Amino acid sequence: MAHELRQDIKLSQQLVMSPQLQMAIKLLQLSRLELVETVREELECNPVLEEERSADDANAVSAKKDEEKEIDWEAYLENCYERRPLGVSFVSEEAEESSLEAALTKKPTLTEHLMWQLHLSPFTEEETRVGEFIIGNIDEDGYLRFDGNNGDEAIYLKSITQEIAKASDAREEVVEEVIKKVQQFDPVGVGSRTLKECLLIQAEFLECKTQVVEEIISRHLNNLEKKNYKAIVAALKIPIDRVVEAVKIIMRLCPRPGSTYGQSESIVIVPDIYIQKVSGDYSILLNENGLPKLKISPYYKALIAKNGKGTDAAKAYVQERLRSARWLIQSIHQRQCTIYKVAQSIVKFQREFFDNGACFLKPLILRDVAADIDMHESTISRVTSNKYAHTPHGIFELKYFFSSKINTNDSTDMSSKSIMEKIKNIYAAEDATKPFSDQKILEILRSSGIDIARRTITKYREAMGILPTSKRKRLF
After folding, report:
1. Is 280 left (phi over 0), alpha (psi -120 to 50) or beta?
2. pTM of the prediction?
3. Which among 45, 54, 23 is positioned nearest to 329, based on CA atoms?
4. DSSP string, 382-428
5. 347-398, pLDDT tens digit by residue?
6. Which residues contact 21 (CB under 8 A, 6 or more apart)?
7. Distance, CA of 476 to CA of 474 (rounded, Å)
8. How far is CA 172 from the centre of its chain?
9. Which domains does the chain have, with CATH numbers?
10. Does residue 271 sit in helix, strand or coil?
């Protein structure tokens, strides 16, 4: 059979995303801080874009220039040099700024803090080498842990010493001595190999290591975790008062000595939207503070209009930059309008939340808002990601207002988040000496018309970080 080449005409339809649509989608899912950074980068690389200054800014710049013109800087500097006292050197404004930046320091990590103490301690060269290896293997909780814990504490501690001695090419007695010295560094107890060792070191350092405290830490941590004080009293054969006093001391100790250095810096959330009640209704205000207001440069606009001189490549570059600038301005405007529409729809659906608080949050899904403002669900999902609203009840991510539906006995639908809020309030009001079980919470909710499974309550409790009944009970 002979092969032949031929051309066929085929008509088909396919979805192609234009560069403008791609930019609009990209900007829509950015957080406010990411949007500001993107706009700043575009201002730097696109000469056609300019930041539009307000009348107040323009007047301030003009006044500053006039003030600079009025000052006779030459006479001023002459006067300064004449009056300069001996032994004082002048530092330029630029140097002052750099020295200020140099004074700003980041929070040291646990490893950096321990290494600093290590190199300030009177260690031998071998001890310093072993100490660096030990500190390098301390985890973020402040513990020196190795694989292979078979439950026997003595064997486990010995195996850690042997592993370090082998890896650092040092004697075991040196390793054991360095571990004890590192455990006395700040924070005290860091480098401990077990929880028991950590608590005993801290109790001894704080001079609160009584016989009862040592007995409880050494042999009854399991009962202490379960708050089974009766078992401790029976084992130690002492009054409950002495056990309670010892437990108070132990609870003041830190089971994770490295936690203060492992915590991340606080993140400041800047709301994208302000929702405030004005004259009985809610007004929505977009936060545009710090977001540069863009405009097309008049120079390049006139250059394009006059079709001025220049190579074809230069003209094509200016045209492309002008088109990119217009797309960016339009996309930002469209983004702000979309966020406003979504916020308006959320306020309409969640009016009871804004009036009364989190317990009155209604079930809401993306499809409801999408149908309300005639947009696709994926657009609503992008808008609600990394966007925050300042409300009369606090700052919430826009995703917070969406939750699944749970049926109740009186045929009304409730939001899962509003039920979680009710459960949280019940736990907050309980008697710490007689905490509620999950079954008791179930009965309280059923009495108010909310019928959900006990396993759902357990799931909500764990999601909120609330401990089970046995670990919440207190005797004092």
Report:
1. left
2. 0.61
3. 23
4. HHHTT-EEEETTEEEEGGGG-B-EEE-TTS-EEEHHHHHHHHHHHHH
5. 999 999 999 888 888 889 899 999 999 999 888 988 888 899 999 999 999 9
6. none
7. 6
8. 42
9. 110-262 (no CATH), 273-401 (no CATH), 405-472 (1.10.10.60)
10. coil
